[in-house]
């Protein structure tokens, strides 16, 4: 009976993995990053636009070192000035005298500014170093904005040309962007609600994520243990790749990796940058208690704004969750066994690089529903990416007494 449940979920997991190619995500079917250009004024040779990027993904953040947005100008447009972000390259501005543009690149690459940017170079919602939270974690931090003054461009709504070939690069990759499309001009309501203004023109670009595009190999795995059996069920070997002499770093007694420049992953049998360990601490008549630990094995990556999704039959009713924030999720699935976990601001919302500080953990108390017996989660996602589970026949063996206290 129990193994049936697990095999079914295993098949489902494969389905989810395969559907990743089509960028369809059963837990977050509408998730995308929408980039909107609101042209707020025309200038003698172009326009000024406020560009807003909204992360509409429920649980996938853009983690540090942040996004890079690119496009190809349709004509010979230049960027006169920017606020709240900057182009990485100025390019060849040699034909300009006097006023020199901020960038003359045909394909500019734009990055966010850092939080300590002088106030007069900021605009609202800028300057987070390109980090965006996911919508499910914090809608108020799930956006990024900058202002751009474009020259050598059309300056009426019939002569302006839309930029082409948008690209969104984020740590881990995986995004593709569609074409820019003119939509109804955005209306802005003043803070006092007494006046409404409207963009001269608005276009938008939708970028979507595909796990397979981001990485053909998984990036996370799950290990399991339980109080009733001293053996730990490890992540399957080679979950995320197999290790050899040159693609990983041995752990030293100090916890610091040697030769971090050459490779960035700590050597493990699973070779995943992220391991989620689920330990069943005790089993009472009405409750389970569990310790969840997320460990970072990457010496060169801090996961800012991380999220963890766990599917477990009793997760619609976690009665106690220590040190993580917890939200039951109601995706468009037939069950509501899914919960979102994320760190608390300035406490554990950054999962630090591999080493002594490279882990975060939480103790959960789950209320049993009297129907399902399951010690271990069905599926786990870190930052929206599915984690590899051990095969069901290797789960810690549950004695027939079920270990109930
Ligand atoms: C993008 O996300 C928004 C907000 O959830 C949604 O309204 C829109 O339909 C999505 N678009 C696509 C193409 O998925
Ligand atoms: C362009 O502006 C005219 C009025 O100046 C307006 O009627 C038209 O709808 C606008 N077109 C677009 C695509 O915004
Ligand atoms: C946009 O990208 C496509 C495919 O990568 C390419 O064929 C096309 O020439 C590009 N367009 C511009 C304007 O760069
Ligand atoms: C080690 O693995 C990496 C990638 O996993 C591969 O590129 C490299 O060639 C391998 N090196 C050896 C010595 O096998
Ligand atoms: C991770 O964050 C810590 C503390 O802010 C910092 O010292 C370290 O350099 C960061 N590591 C990376 C790889 O960015
Ligand atoms: C969830 O937990 C609360 C508090 O323990 C309990 O009153 C409620 O009946 C539970 N709901 C479900 C659906 O199990
Ligand atoms: C969501 O659920 C409703 C009702 O069960 C169904 O009609 C709809 O097609 C589902 N949508 C998706 C995207 O799965
Ligand atoms: C999901 O949760 C809602 C609200 O707690 C409940 O009404 C519904 O019956 C649950 N559905 C399933 C399939 O458990
Ligand atoms: C503990 O689990 C392992 C692996 O599932 C199993 O081989 C072993 O018999 C179990 N030990 C006990 C005492 O149940």
UniProtKB/TrEMBL annotation:
Topology relative to the lipid bilayer, per the entry, is: Lipid-anchor; GPI-anchor
Query: Which region is the signal sequence?
Result: 1-23
Residue limits of the COBRA C-terminal domain?
Answer: 219-253, 262-396
Q: Is Signal given among the entry's keywords? A: yes
- Subcellular location, in the record's words? Cell membrane
**UniProt keyword annotations, A-Z:** Glycoprotein, GPI-anchor, Lipoprotein, Membrane, Signal
- Keyword GTP-binding listed: no
Which protein family is it in? Belongs to the COBRA family.
Q: What is this protein called?
A: COBRA-like protein
**Native organism:** Solanum tuberosum
């Amino acid at each position: 009976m129990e193994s049936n449940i697990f095999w079914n979920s295993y098949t489902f997991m494969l389905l989810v993995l395969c559907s990743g190619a089509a960028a369809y995500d059963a837990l977050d079917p509408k998730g995308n990053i929408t980039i909107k250009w609101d042209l707020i004024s025309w200038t003698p040779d172009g326009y000024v636009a406020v560009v807003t990027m909204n992360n509409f993904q429920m649980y996938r953040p853009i983690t540090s070192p942040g996004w890079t947005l690119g496009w190809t100008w349709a004509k010979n447009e230049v960027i006169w000035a920017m606020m709240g972000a900057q182009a990485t390259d100025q390019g060849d501005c040699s034909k300009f005298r006097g006023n020199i543009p901020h960038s003359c690149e045909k394909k500019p690459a734009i990055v966010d500014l850092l939080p300590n940017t002088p106030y007069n170079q900021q605009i609202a919602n800028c300057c987070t170093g390109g980090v965006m939270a996911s919508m499910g974690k914090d809608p108020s931090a799930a956006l990024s904005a900058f202002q751009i003054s474009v020259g050598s461009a059309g300056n009426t709504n019939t002569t302006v040309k839309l930029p082409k070939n948008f690209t969104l690069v984020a740590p881990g990759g995986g995004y593709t962007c569609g074409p820019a499309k003119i939509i109804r001009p955005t209306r802005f309501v003043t803070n006092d609600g007494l006046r409404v203004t409207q963009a001269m023109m608005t276009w938008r670009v939708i970028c979507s994520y595909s796990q397979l595009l981001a990485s053909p190999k998984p990036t996370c795995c799950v290990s399991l243990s339980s109080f009733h059996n001293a053996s730990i069920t490890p992540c399957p070997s080679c979950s995320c790749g197999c290790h050899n002499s040159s693609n990983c770093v041995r752990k030293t007694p100090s916890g610091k990796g040697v030769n971090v420049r050459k490779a960035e992953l700590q050597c493990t049998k699973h070779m995943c940058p992220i391991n989620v360990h689920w330990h069943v601490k005790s089993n009472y008549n009405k409750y389970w208690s569990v310790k969840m630990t997320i460990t970072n094995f990457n010496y060169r990556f801090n996961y800012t704004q991380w999220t963890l999704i766990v599917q477990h039959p009793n997760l619609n009713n976690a009665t106690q969750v220590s040190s993580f924030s917890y939200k039951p999720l109601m995706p468009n699935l037939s069950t509501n066994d899914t919960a979102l976990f994320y760190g608390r601001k300035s406490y554990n919302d950054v999962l630090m690089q591999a080493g002594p500080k490279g882990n975060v953990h939480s103790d959960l108390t789950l209320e049993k529903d009297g129907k399902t017996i399951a010690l271990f989660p069905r599926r786990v996602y870190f930052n929206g990416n599915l984690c590899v589970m051990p095969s069901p026949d290797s789960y810690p063996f549950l004695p027939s007494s079920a270990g109930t206290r």
